[in-house]
Amino acid sequence: MASRTTLNARNLEALGTGPLAQLLMEVTTGNAAARRKLRLALAGAQSPAQAAREIARRLTSIANARGAIGWRKRKAAIDDLATQRRGIVAQVATSDPAEALALMWRFLSVATPVIDRCRGGEEAVIAVFRDACADLGTLVAAVRPDPEALRDAVFEALVDNRFGQCDGLVGVLAPALGDAGLLELHQRFDALCAQPAETPSDIAAWRRRRLARRALQDIADARGDVDGFVAQTAPEQRHVPATALGIARRLRAAGRTEAALAALDAVTDAAPPAEWQTARLEVLEALGRGEAAQAFRWACFERDLSADHLRAYLGKLPDFEDFEAEERAVALAMEHPDLGAAVRFFLDWRAPGRAAEVLIRRRDEIDGTDTEGLSRAAEALEPDQPGAATLALRAMIDAALRQGRSGQYRQAARHLATCAALAPRIDARTPIEDHDTHVARLRREHARKTGFWSRVEG
Q1: 266-291 residue pLDDT tens
Q2: To 5 degrees, how large is the angle CA 420–CA 422–CA 426?
Q3: Which of 38, 106, 250, 425 is the most buried (most CB within 10 A)?
Q4: In 144-289, which residue ranges form alpha helices assigned H by DSSP?
Q5: End-to-end CA distance of the chain
């Protein structure tokens, strides 16, 4: 059973309204965000109309603000926006959905000036406005506004969609817009896209066309028009893996698998991401091209040393052939130009002995700046491969000292302590410098890195 002094709602209610009100006044003094929440709560207690007026006033203040939103102010700004959005939904919409709908459109209109003021971390701010787009679907369904007014509101919001804050709005409102509404929006954005630029370097025209194309793609998605979506994709963008992947997924959903493969094969990236590789394999299998899929799996493995691709490749081979293929894969990984990729592969393949072997044999190629990969290798190899683990740790220490990265000195000192603990367990036949010699060399080469040595001695 919780103590009566534990901070929870029940214990606070026991204080009574008077003491609680006094405490709230004390703890919110100097806290503008908290006081705004209290004012909104008080307004909502009077009436939804009063809450609406309070929210409208706050949205005007937010729209007119000019100060930059850096990392120190970002959390408060997001909290403030979320408070206004929740107020519209919880305090206004329950009794006056039409007023709530008008407020939510107004809320969405402040997105551009707010995001313009951000100095990093815009994604979290944009997410609040995308939540508002989802709320609009519920409000529009409840209010059933005039179709023309709805089309105008959607058009204005998408014309202002500079930061993607309204992405998904068309899909949310498609049922309310209907075929006629979607067609009219398509025509309006098509006309906007066709407007000529005043000069060859007209940035405003370029931005207008970009926003129009994005809106036309959303409308095409809502109408199930794959060709319309593709038509609004710039030809040079169709060679980008993420764009090709989006096109291919839509084509597959429409049952056009051959066209999906052609879209994926338009990519010119020499090392496309894993998501694109997976999609291409799925398309090849769907087309019944098993041999081509196997050849592609092996090609992906050769380039990236992906353990997942190799497992899938081996799993589709006849009995006994998989053993020979695995040996060939191990030999390829041992000589792969990217040592870090080779180590990651052997760890993923659960072959720590091979990972240690390649680290020791190719120790001059270890990249000490790969802290994530080397930390993982060191942790995995410490129990049974202390020599290889030591090489990984030393590489990170040397890189931190050589580049003077003082922020890494504390971790480098810990790595050196780990090396000292591993030293007695290293086989004398392992061809690496002994611990004392290594430390002596570090003291000679980096004697002036006092920040590091103070942490070592500490």
Answers
A1: 999 888 999 999 999 999 999 999 99
A2: 120
A3: 250
A4: 147-159, 169-194, 203-223, 226-231, 241-253, 257-265, 274-286
A5: 45
